[in-house]
Specification:
single chain
Length: about 210
């Protein structure tokens, strides 16, 4: 059984923080603004102000704005990888797929801005971090692909990959603008929708 690997080895250049709590608050502010305005639309002064800090003081915690983005993407990768552990020892492929979907939805509902930045702003990470982050993402999605291929051996490898990418991005996008529904009902519904997207019997005909 393949073990869940650590997301990445890349470590952003971080100056020694005076307080771990301050650094965490600053990162939350950065993620929120990156998601709300996009990476290039969020300035360091705004990020610092949102965290209750002056612009220059953020550099006591992060050397650059790029490093804040990398730290945020790493946070998303780690949260997703931790969720995948629940399915690691499940021998039933369908049950394993259900556990993966449930863990993905749980992360998306609890940390929508983290997952949003992970999926939609990670394209802006520095080149030295991008290779390993991409490898981490592929390792994570492979957990879905392996189980889906076991449950649906009739699907081609390409179709399996497309379904996994589409289902994960569907949930990531949905969780950025959710209706006011009790969390448990929302989690159950989204988990079922993600699983249904992966297991759907009918493939769509290409547009003509």
């Amino acid at each position: 059984m393949q073990e869940v690997q650590s997301p990445v080895r890349y470590e952003p250049a971080v100056r020694r923080p005076r307080s771990a709590q301050t650094r965490a608050r600053l990162l939350r502010s950065a993620l929120s603004l990156f998601w709300e305005r996009g990476y290039h639309g969020a300035g360091t002064n705004e990020i610092g102000a949102a965290a209750g800090l002056s612009g220059p003081s953020i550099y006591r915690h992060f050397a650059t704005k790029d490093d804040m983005l990398v730290a945020g993407v790493l946070d998303g990768a780690e949260k997703l990888a931790a969720g995948a552990i629940a399915a690691q020892h499940e021998t039933d492929p369908r049950r394993g797929l259900e556990l993966l979907c449930a863990s993905f939805v749980e992360v998306a509902l609890k940390y929508p801005e983290v997952l949003g930045v992970y999926f939609y702003e990670s394209r802006h990470v520095p080149a030295e971090a991008k290779v390993e982050l991409d490898q981490s993402g592929r390792r994570y999605l492979h957990h879905y692909e392996r189980r889906l291929a076991s449950v649906r051996p009739d699907l081609s490898a390409q179709e399996v990959q497309l379904r996994v990418v589409a289902a994960s991005q569907m949930i990531a996008g949905t969780c950025t603008d959710l209706p006011k529904v009790p969390k448990k009902a929302l989690k159950d519904s989204l988990t079922k929708r993600m699983l249904a997207a992966l297991l759907a019997d009918m493939e769509l005909e290409p547009a003509r």
